[in-house]
Specification:
494 residues, mainly alpha, 77% helix
């Protein structure tokens, strides 16, 4: 059998194997080279599988040659192929950035451990997106979460330990809810295979254990994806983690949790059971709007730029969930498109803020006064990403919000169109705070010593900025893939 037949397994196995090998090597250069090779190989595999799915439909891989539902199945369809490509692509860009970034933020004797945890986190995130087994999904979720706690705690700022502890507590509560939900589903269906579970649930959707499972999974996954008001772990985690970790987690962790929610809602329980028999659409709409407005309002009053954009992430997750609440192909297309577009935008932002931190020693608004004069390219990149968060035409964020507006107009909810535009004005307010400090405030006296970001930090960041602009101009990959995924979730295509 050719290697091509084993691509789904290699997608997870390569970074998973790289993690313990990096620990055994105990050498930061060798660990970096090993994990980098595994990460780029994972990205190449994800692109190949995305092309295969687009050309010939979903891929199914039976682990150990045990056919599903008896054995564990890896399954790649339109949605999971896009998420796999997003996660591995972000990792392939962020990892070279780590090499220069962690020199300033993590003790040198911990560097090989950092690379091991990065590989472990990546394998967990990829596993969530590719597995067709409910318990496997929980296991991979815990692998990615546990390694995330370590990555956050590796920061030299003592507040990173507190942030990691808060994330651990809330993440553990979320994981407990998820495993209870999976257990209840297994109790009612006798299977852990997601596709088989979906078939068996059709006759028992109104039973109380199934409804309880839906409730447990909704709360548990919402904790992981930081849906308002279950987002308390996120601001500190993003603010005090090493810059490369903030960028990687902001671009991937919450997005994969959104994938898990979509998978359970539409592929397992079914759209009818979730949105037709229960008031889930109204419930999610309220929480999405609350996140969009409250988190954006809180962001306006933050002085630390990493915390400011962390609260912005909570607001942007509100937009993603808003698309789910429409329960339509256009709404789900908006959700999946924004999942990708926000990932590249926020990844770019945190990479650029890492370059600012390396040069300025911090990212508070007081520290970055006048930075536009000494780091013009980095500052301009942050502004471009800010325009994407606002939804200005020509950026990725505009495409997402346009599809949300289309979904609202399809439903005749013109008041919701007004609220989407109004919430974008709050984004203008918090982005303007940075613009004002960078360009219109008197520069600090010590700015004469500051120089532009070195190429090792600037190149990965600008690759992500370029993607933010590119996806705003060419939507063939993002909208095309998202539309296929949305149609698949709603049963329009297999």
């Amino acid at each position: 059998m050719s290697v091509a037949a084993h691509l789904p397994a290699l997608q997870v196995v390569l970074p998973l194997a790289a993690a313990p090998l990096a620990v055994l090597l105990r050498n930061r250069t060798a660990a970096f080279a090993l994990v980098l090779a595994a990460t780029w190989a994972a990205f190449a595999i994800s692109v190949l599988m995305w092309q295969q799915v687009a050309a010939s439909g979903p891929l199914s891989y039976a682990l150990g040659s045990w056919p599903p539902p008896w054995g564990i199945e890896y399954r790649v369809d339109a949605l999971s192929a896009l998420v796999l490509m997003l996660v591995s692509g972000v990792a392939a860009v962020v990892l070279p950035y780590c090499r220069a970034s962690i020199e300033r933020e993590i003790r040198r004797d911990n560097h090989y451990l950092f690379y091991a945890m990065f590989a472990l986190c990546l394998s967990g995130l990829l596993g969530i997106a590719i597995t067709g087994d409910a318990f496997n999904l929980f296991v991979f979720l815990e692998i990615s979460s546990l390694s995330s706690y370590v990555l956050i705690a590796l920061g030299r700022d003592r507040r990173a330990l507190l942030a990691a502890y808060q994330y651990l507590i809330m993440g553990t509560i979320g994981a407990t809810f998820i495993v209870i939900g999976v257990g209840l589903l297994y109790l009612m269906t006798g299977t852990l295979n997601l596709a088989d579970m979906s078939v068996r649930l059709q006759s028992v959707t109104s039973h109380r254990p199934v409804l309880a499972a839906l409730a447990f999974l909704t709360v548990g996954i919402s904790l992981k994806l930081a849906l308002f008001p279950l987002h308390q772990w996120l601001p500190n985690a993003y603010a005090y983690a090493p810059s490369a970790v903030s960028a990687f987690l902001a671009a991937t962790a919450t997005k994969v949790s959104v994938y898990a929610l979509l998978r359970f809602y539409f592929s397992v329980f079914g759209e009818g059971a979730v949105f037709k028999q229960l008031p889930m659409a109204e419930f999610m709409l309220v929480l999405a709007l609350a996140g969009m407005f409250v988190a954006s309002a809180v962001a306006i009053f933050q002085d630390n730029l990493k915390r400011l954009f962390a609260y912005s992430s909570v607001a942007q997750i509100g937009y993603i969930v808003l698309g789910i609440s429409f329960d339509s192909v256009t709404g789900l297309t908006a959700t999946v498109v924004h999942l990708v577009n926000h990932a590249v935008t926020k990844g770019a932002l945190f990479l650029l803020l890492g370059a600012v931190m390396a040069a300025m020693g911090g990212v508070t608004l007081a520290r970055v006064r006048g930075i536009g004069r000494v780091m013009p390219r980095t500052t301009f990149g942050i502004v471009l990403c800010g325009l994407s968060l606002i939804g200005v035409p020509g950026t990725a964020g505009f495409v997402s919000k346009w599809y949300l507006i289309l979904a609202a107009m399809e439903k005749g909810q013109w008041w919701l169109v007004f609220l989407i535009v109004l919430s974008s004005l709050l984004a203008v307010a918090y982005v303007w705070r940075f613009v004002e400090a960078a360009y219109f405030r008197a520069p600090r006296a010590d700015l004469a010593q500051v120089r532009e970001a070195p190429l090792a930090l600037a190149l990965p960041a600008w690759l992500m900025v370029g993607a933010t602009v590119w996806f705003g101009l060419d939507t063939s990959v993002t909208v095309g893939s998202a539309a296929r995924a949305a149609a698949m979730l709603l049963g329009a295509v297999p």
